[in-house]
Amino acid sequence: MIYADYNGSAPLCQDVRDYLIKRLTDGPYANPNAIHHLGSKVLMAMENARSVCAKTLGADFKQVIFNSGATEGISTAFHSVMTETSKKRIIISGIEHSATVNTAKYYADSQGCEVIAIKTKPNGIIDLEDLEAHINDDTAVVSIMAANNETGVIQPYLEISKLCNEKGVPFICDTTQFIGKTLFHFKNCGADYAVMSGHKIGAMTGTGILLAKDPERVKPIIIGGGQERGKRGGTQHYLGYETLAVALNYFEKHLDNIEILNNKRIEFETKLKEKFPEVVILGEDAPRLASTTYVAYPGIHGQAVQIELESKEIFVTTSSACSDNEPVTSKVLKAMGVSDDVGRGVVRISIGLCSDPSMYDTILEALSQTYEKLTKIKSY
Amino acid sequence: MIYADYNGSAPLCQDVRDYLIKRLTDGPYANPNAIHHLGSKVLMAMENARSVCAKTLGADFKQVIFNSGATEGISTAFHSVMTETSKKRIIISGIEHSATVNTAKYYADSQGCEVIAIKTKPNGIIDLEDLEAHINDDTAVVSIMAANNETGVIQPYLEISKLCNEKGVPFICDTTQFIGKTLFHFKNCGADYAVMSGHKIGAMTGTGILLAKDPERVKPIIIGGGQERGKRGGTQHYLGYETLAVALNYFEKHLDNIEILNNKRIEFETKLKEKFPEVVILGEDAPRLASTTYVAYPGIHGQAVQIELESKEIFVTTSSACSDNEPVTSKVLKAMGVSDDVGRGVVRISIGLCSDPSMYDTILEALSQTYEKLTKIKSY
After folding, report:
1. CA–CA separation, A129 vs B284, rounded Å?
2. Which of A22, A52, A68, A353 has its Cα between 20 and 30 A from that of B109?
3. Which residue of B42, B72, B205, B347 is the best one to mutate when testing the A interface, meaning the one whose CB has the most A CBs within 10 A?
């Protein structure tokens, strides 16, 4: 079985699995805010995890706010920014995740904000000039991702950050697909907020981190008993947060895998294109994550490819999990100006840092057979 | 070791632990919203868990919205109610959890709402007449708990619900300490919203349920890609949600434990009072949860008792986890009109449905020794 839907959700990393099974067996369990020794022990383990996460992500300890995941992070970052401004322009891009798109829409609907989606170039990179042209005095926030979930195309987030800092506009950087797949340094990046989800990097489900440049400015959307320094209420998902540290530790120890994975992915794509010159790799010329290939055989439906691969025990998706159920060109691809002929044909192959790079060989063989089979059917 | 801080956080129930270890070992892991078979498998398991939770909690399937816990539930319920009304009065009680108090305060600060905390009787039960007297045409919501986290006193939530329904005022019922400790039937209860946290009933941390009478009226605070029918964004914490079903199943199968536990708790309290007639049991005359005793020896500091018990490997708290760190009379006890002499002396002994009732014997012996020791020191 080959699981190639890491961008949708990563399986628990083996280190995390081992850690968690031992942790669940041994305990202790307690409310980390409790006064007794067991509570302190749980708290210390959680704060130690925070420390590891902070170090790995290039953030200060206090800049790490644990939460349930990137979607909560995005909602919290927007809430924090929007409650401290009367400005009305929200700038996003056309390739943002629905967590960002729908949150921006919420402020349009409820507070009369104007949402502008800046242009994306055909290679999948957002148009920096268009961004600069749209930032005006009424701009409340810019929210743009560091890497796209469908194409894996890496965005010029450092330049966006620099631009926003110069213009004094808060920048929310959606790093959900970036963290754990390539190096990220929050403080060097300069964004006001960055977000992540544990389940995308092999940690426990229901975990995440909001990174905040100035944590004092975070306004909680989950209000509670003062947990996370008053920035996120509710008894902490400490068992899960500990696994964030385990997964990020694993990532840091296996950084070399990135290059290996990247080379293997390029080799896979090259061989695939040699066999099938018609094949389109989305964002081919742009810098991409080591482990993502978004590929289409024009005229062959992506869902047919996906099903065929699944019959060979290879699990991929046609686009992101959220838009999966609609057999149409995704909004990301539309923003890139991709035709429906290609757009409906895509499958996303995404593996992880823990994956064996040799699985690209198996995928190549299976995908080749699939394309051969489906083009034959098509030609009948 | 005796863990007697279940009201703070319950250890993972043994069934949950066994389930989770097997689940983590076997997989599958996938995004429940993904198109492939692994995704469907994860989704089906999650929806099956929702079904079990709905049945156990007396709710319809669609009324069960998974989230990260009760605090998120409270914040979401308030947000849902407050965005559909222009009314300004929020009624809570003096014994509410800080999740409720601080959420009400948020609407006072941000939207000029008036927050009224109705009176509590000395026995720890909220004053129904005072509630009725305060519900007026401008009342946006009533948010009152079903059982108190410190005293374990069961509140007249059915009467509150009836009253609110008659007056057409939305009722948020904080059932965090109620669910999993005694029978609860959401639809029969009649509340508009009820909340729970998995970690209070032996399920995985970071899990919870918002029960909504009319789920269509829920307005998400975590906005995302349409998960939980658009009522709670973010990839679901499916591994955790499955354990909610396991824990609630355990509860349903061990309902008989409640009476056994209740009898043992009453026996414990009776014997303790026989030995130490000075001892005050808070909410003694009120109906209480089977497993909670909030007890004080006037003039002896609760923290001293807690530390002494801890030295005997018995873990209790002085009050709720959130106010633990302040050696003062808790706001719950203040609302009950309890003197500082008693209020500073309390320890909370709370065990769970999975606990061996015989641990009350050990606690009785240890607490007796503790009181004897500390009264001696006091008399020097």
Report:
1. 70
2. A68
3. B205
In DSSP notation, B5-56 reads: BTTT-PPPPHHHHHHHHHHHHH-----TT-SSHHHHHHHHHHHHHHHHHHHH
Domains B2-9+255-379 and B14-253 share a fold: no
Among A29, A199, A223, select the one facing B11 at the smallest CB separation.
A29
Query: Alpha-carbon distance A130 to A6, whole Å?
Result: 31
pLDDT tens-digit readout, B358-379: 999 999 999 999 999 999 886 6
Rounded CA-CA distance A306/B36 in Å is 8
In this prediction the pTM is: 0.96
Classify B14-253 by CATH class: alpha beta
| Distance from the B241 Cα atom to the nearest Cα atom in chain A, whole angstroms | 10
Domain extents in chain A: 2-9+255-379, 14-253
- B304: its two tokens: 């001293």
Distance CA B117, CA B102 (A): 12
**A317-333 confidence digits (pLDDT tens):** 997 554 445 568 999 99
- Output the CA–CA distances (angstroms, integers) from residue A16 to A12, B148, B377, in the order listed: 6, 37, 49
Rounded average pLDDT over B38-60: 98
The pLDDT tens digits for B229-257 are 999 999 999 999 999 999 999 999 999 99
Å from A61 to nearest chain B CA? 21
Distance CA B43, CA B36 (A): 11
* CATH architecture of the domain covering A2-9+255-379: Alpha-Beta Complex (3.90)
